[in-house]
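Researcher: We plan to redesign the surface later, but first we want a full-length starting point. Tokens attached.
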């Protein structure tokens, strides 16, 4: 515990298994005879509140700028054509200084220095760090117009013959239009992060906390703030209510709608011992759950963090925009000065007829207007928005489809993928294998056999191990018991199996390679059983006790619905598919043939899977790896894009670039298609942003002026620049209308629900 007297801040560490924020609040409020009140700080909504505040600030700034700019505009552009008002505005005060000029100066000054101060601050910060940005261009452009106007007004006040022409409306209208553009931009950008808001809204605001006696009977119910849930709390979930946090069911049966987290539409049956996810909806029965992961540890919080970090991560293509912007601003300043100087010099040297100059200007003012217009219209804002806005929307759309993409780099790599390496178990297959046959090669009691096997396998996360343990329960007197004999010296041999000492017996459970590596002989009968098992697309697991092969387990894992159709569809997308699995050749070939994959690598160790990925990359392929287990992690990391099936292990999910929350293979197609659509949008954004500058700069510089006398006033250039930025953001927002390929709907691929 530590206390900071300057900030009046107390920091403490605690064990979440024993206590939590709710207990702290109770202690604080019970101290001092109730004089103190405490509440949890609202971390939820702070992100949205910050954006709302930013939107509000730009809106207020724009409205205040209009209060001053509209009168300036009217005096400069409208009232000059109304005889009575024109006469009043042109009334001279001192020498050639008029009332209209004084009023425009007074009204434009707050716009320039108070309302527009954010641009000065931004320019100062950029220049202090040795760079130049949009704020630098705006500050230079508006200052040029404003201070020239001040010079013109002061000269008119001190000269009996100088007729002033000011640009106060230019600086004021320029700032107003840019503020309008920024307001529309932040408004549109806010919509790009709606996916995060929707995820955060899934967390229930309140929860029903239960107090139980030693026999598990309910003593009391209390409604608490959902943020005050602590680990090991017992919570009641009524029908129609959201599950308050991650945990497991200790009482009751129901069905839970997990579509908002996994995208799986069908309710999932839940009973005692089953895990539930916070934010999902209980549909019928009452459940009592025990909290296991709360706050930042919950699945929902982790998904929000992943999406948030993904939206902040830059795509490699963004580096191009950053490099362009870095040199573009100094180039724009040079072009702006060159434009002014060229037109000014041409005017002084009679390079064009005097009749070209508008009656309200001289050659210097005409040149200045061209220079300011170039500076403003060439601002690279749209270029800087082209990639991040598309990435934000793309990752948000992916999250809503159950495809969590970890940032711009993953998006960019995925759209180039032309080769996918599939694991078999849990990827092409359902991942819920079951033991369908047991062959004992030695005379022993089945119950004893499975006691030893399950004790060795219970510590493994592999789906086959879980299937064996589940099957072993059938041979116990108490099927509900989860206690097995103690396994000493447990060792998980990745890609092969497990090894342990149970009841003083050395137990090995795994594939044929495991037995060969430990010099355990395999009889001809055992070879025949293995061949028969593999011919049925089943996996043969061998068991040895004290260096002797005693049994073979046949495990079946059915194909996922639509697996064949997905592989066929990938071929139509010009994506080649390969199976690389640790399973035996017979089973691997049978599965590959069934789904339509020609290339198979079987009995591969984790490092061999990674080597195969690197081999494909060396051949010029952009490789994606799809897997779900610990033994897939090296290959997931080695691949250009790693896709983890969401139902897989935490290690696989951590190693992957993309997490498929559902167990549907069709989401592999969704991930590739979405990334391609996103990068098509990024290209379109760049084309628009660069095309806008390529066309806009010559027009602003006066390229059309000699032929058709067309010139672009700075305030219109500012409006065009703002419109360009807003249009890029809106272009990215169109990705929110993304629909999966129509063929996926007609294939009738269904999700996997395990009950």
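Model: Full-length starting sequence:
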């Amino acid at each position: 515990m530590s206390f900071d007297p300057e900030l009046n801040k107390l920091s403490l560490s605690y064990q979440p298994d024993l206590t939590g924020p709710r207990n702290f609040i109770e202690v604080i409020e019970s101290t001092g005879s109730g004089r103190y009140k405490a509440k949890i700080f609202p971390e939820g909504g702070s992100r949205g509140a910050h954006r709302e505040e930013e939107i509000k600030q730009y809106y207020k700034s724009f409205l205040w700028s209009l209060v001053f700019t509209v009168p300036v505009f009217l005096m400069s552009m409208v009232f000059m054509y109304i005889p009575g008002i024109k006469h009043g505005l042109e009334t001279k005060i001192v020498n050639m200084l008029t009332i209209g000029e004084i009023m425009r100066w007074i009204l434009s000054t707050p716009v320039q220095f108070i309302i527009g101060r954010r641009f000065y601050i931004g320019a100062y910060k950029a220049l202090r760090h040795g760079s130049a940005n949009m704020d630098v261009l705006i500050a230079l452009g508006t200052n040029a117009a404003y201070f020239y106007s001040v010079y013109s007004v002061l000269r008119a006040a001190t000269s009996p013959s100088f007729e002033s022409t000011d640009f106060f409306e230019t600086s004021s209208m320029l700032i107003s239009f840019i503020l309008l553009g920024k307001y529309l931009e932040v408004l549109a950008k806010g919509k790009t992060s709606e996916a995060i808001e929707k995820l955060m809204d899934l967390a229930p605001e309140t929860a029903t906390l239960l107090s139980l006696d030693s026999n598990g009977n309910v003593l009391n119910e209390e409604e608490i703030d959902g943020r005050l849930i602590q680990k090991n709390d017992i919570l009641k979930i009524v029908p129609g209510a959201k599950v308050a946090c991650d945990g497991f069911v200790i009482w009751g049966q129901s069905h839970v709608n997990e579509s908002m987290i996994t995208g799986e539409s069908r309710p999932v049956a839940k009973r005692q011992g089953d895990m539930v996810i916070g934010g999902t909806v209980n549909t019928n029965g009452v459940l009592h759950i025990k909290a296991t992961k709360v706050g930042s540890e919950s699945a929902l919080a982790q998904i929000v963090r992943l999406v948030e970090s993904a939206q902040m991560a830059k795509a490699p293509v963004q580096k191009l925009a950053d490099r362009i912007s870095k040199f573009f601003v100094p180039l724009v300043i040079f072009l702006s000065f060159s434009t002014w100087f060229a037109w000014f010099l041409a005017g002084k040297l009679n390079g064009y007829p005097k009749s070209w100059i508008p009656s309200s200007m001289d050659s210097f003012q005409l040149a200045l207007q061209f220079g300011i217009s170039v500076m403003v219209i060439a601002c690279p804002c749209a270029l800087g928005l082209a990639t991040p806005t598309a990435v934000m929307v793309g990752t948000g759309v992916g999250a809503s489809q159950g495809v969590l993409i970890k940032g711009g780099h993953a998006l960019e790599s995925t759209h180039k993928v032309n080769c996918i390496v599939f694991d078999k178990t849990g990827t092409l297959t359902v991942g819920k294998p079951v033991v369908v046959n047991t062959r004992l090669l030695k005379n022993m009691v089945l119950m004893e056999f499975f006691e030893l096997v399950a004790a060795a396998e219970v510590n493994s996360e592999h789906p086959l191990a879980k299937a064996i343990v589940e099957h072993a329960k059938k041979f116990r007197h108490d099927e509900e018991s989860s206690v097995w004999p103690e396994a000493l010296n447990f060792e998980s041999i990745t890609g092969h199996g497990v090894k342990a000492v149970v009841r003083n017996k050395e137990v090995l459970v795994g594939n044929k390679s495991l037995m060969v590596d430990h010099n355990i002989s395999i009889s001809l009968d055992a070879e025949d059983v293995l061949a028969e098992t593999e011919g049925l697309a089943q996996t043969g697991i061998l068991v040895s006790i004290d260096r002797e092969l005693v049994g073979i387990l046949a495990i079946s894992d059915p194909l996922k619905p639509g697996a064949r159709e997905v592989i066929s569809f990938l071929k139509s997308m010009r994506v080649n598919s390969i199976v690389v699995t640790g399973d035996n050749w017979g089973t691997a070939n049978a599965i590959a043939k069934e789904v339509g994959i020609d290339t198979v690598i079987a009995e591969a160790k984790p490092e061999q899977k990674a080597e195969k990925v690197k081999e494909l990359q060396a051949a010029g392929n952009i490789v994606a790896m799809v897997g779900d287990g610990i033994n897939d992690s090296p290959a997931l990391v080695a691949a250009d894009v790693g896709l983890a099936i969401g139902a897989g292990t935490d290690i696989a999910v951590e190693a992957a670039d993309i997490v498929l929350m559902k167990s549907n293979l069709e989401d592999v197609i969704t991930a590739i298609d979405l990334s391609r659509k996103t990068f098509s949008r990024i290209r379109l954004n760049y084309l628009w942003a660069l095309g806008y500058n390529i066309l806009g700069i010559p027009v602003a510089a006066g390229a059309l002026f000699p032929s058709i006398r067309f010139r672009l006033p700075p305030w219109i250039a500012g409006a065009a620049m703002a419109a360009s930025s807003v249009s890029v953001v809106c272009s990215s927002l169109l990705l929110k209308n993304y629909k999966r390929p129509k063929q996926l709907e007609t294939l009738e691929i269904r999700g996997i629900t395990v009950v």
